[in-house]
Amino acid sequence: MTEITLLVTENQVNSLIRSTRKNLPNESCSLLLGDIVDREYRVKILKEMNNIANSEYSFNIDPDELMKVYQWASKEQLNLIGIYHSHLEGSKPSATDLTYMRINPVIWLIYELSESIFRAYILVDDNLKEVKIKFSTG
After folding, report:
1. What is the tens place of the pLDDT at every residue in 49-70?
2. Can you spell out the DSSP letters for 76-138?
3. What is the spatial distance between Cα 23 and Cα 50, in angstroms, rounded to a whole number?
4. How confident is the model over 112-130, as pLDDT tens digits?
5. Which helix (H) or strand (E) holds 41?
6. Looking at the domain 5-136, which fold is it?
7. What pLDDT sits at residue 138?
8. How far apart are the C-alpha atoms of 133 and 82, rounded to whole Å?
9. Contact in structure between 112 and 94 (CB atoms under 8 Å)
10. Considering the entire predicted model, what is its pTM?
11. Quick check: 71 and 112 in contact, CB under 8 A?
């Protein structure tokens, strides 16, 4: 079985880091929209979302805002391929993240501020699998 890969550009990564720093001390969150080709999840558009939890330990996206993005993505023929959020420390999904990963079976991209690293995960048959991240210049 081929490895699942998340393809993001350097510009997208820099955008996520900027939004994360802007939202400190709260967790930052964004939706990753794009397509999937041969188990490669290709991010085309980032949609920064408002963390209505206003928390440094969790995030929550306004359901109305979420529906608007789903509708827009559908019109643009894009899929929700991932959910991004930040952690002050630790890059593994929290127990809360795991609960929501079961509801939202897409890649979860986490940026750990204390170490300045990105890691990505997906649940496969309720088993947590790390996803390889490929950074491109395009």
Report:
1. 999 999 999 999 999 999 999 9
2. TT-EEEEEEEEESS--SPPHHHHHHHHHS-SEEEEEETTTTEEEEEEEETTEEEEEEEEEE--
3. 9
4. 999 999 999 999 999 999 9
5. strand 40-49
6. Cytidine Deaminase; domain 2 (3.40.140)
7. 67
8. 12
9. no
10. 0.95
11. no
Helical (H) or strand (E) element with 35: strand 29-37
Instruction: Identify whether the C-beta of residue 75 lies closer than 8 Å to the C-beta of residue 49.
Output: no
Give CA–CA dist 130/92, Å, rounded: 9
Place of tokens 């963390």: 51
The encoded tokens of residue 97 equal: 């993240």
Number of CB atoms found within 10 A of residue 33's CB: 20
Domains of the chain, residue spans: 5-136
Residue pLDDT, tens place only, 76-115: 999 999 999 999 999 999 999 999 999 999 999 999 999 9
Q: Torsion angle, CA of 43/48/53/55, rounded to 10 degrees?
A: 90
